[in-house]
């Protein structure tokens, strides 16, 4: 199972809201809410958008590393 806790931690640490993230990336707040609740997972293409926007690696967002800047 994929752990998105780093994703939500990154958003919190950057002071972002789901609305701001949605407005800036075009990813719906509904998607973000579903990810937070575990109802669904982001697609690969959305993970790339998020990693670029949040200035971190996809591996970090997926909990595969604790270092935001490096891949596993």
List keywords for this structure.
globular; 5 helices; 72 residues; mainly alpha
Helix content: 55-70%
User: How much of the sequence is in beta strands?
Assistant: under 5%
Distance between the termini: 17 Å
Radius of gyration: 11 Å
Class computed from helices, strands and strand pairing? mainly alpha
* Largest beta-sheet characterization: none
Mean pLDDT value: 93
Assembly status? single chain
Number of strands: 0
Number of helices: 5
**Principal-axes shape call:** globular
Q: Quick recap of the structure?
A:
The chain has 72 residues and is mainly α.
Describe this structure in words.
This protein is mostly helical and 72 residues long. It is 57% helix and 0% strand. It has helices at residues 5-13, 18-25, 29-37, 44-54, 58-61. The two termini are 17 Å apart. 15% of the residues are buried.
Tell me the layout of helices and strands.
Elements: H1 5-13, H2 18-25, H3 29-37, H4 44-54, H5 58-61
């Amino acid at each position: 199972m994929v752990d998105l806790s780093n994703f939500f931690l990154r958003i919190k640490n950057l002071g972002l809201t789901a609305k701001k993230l949605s407005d800036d990336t075009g990813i719906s707040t509904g998607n973000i809410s579903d990810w937070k609740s575990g109802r669904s997972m982001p697609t690969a293409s959305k993970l790339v958008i998020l990693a670029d926007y949040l200035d971190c690696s996809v591996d970090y967002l997926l909990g595969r590393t604790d270092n935001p800047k490096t891949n596993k």
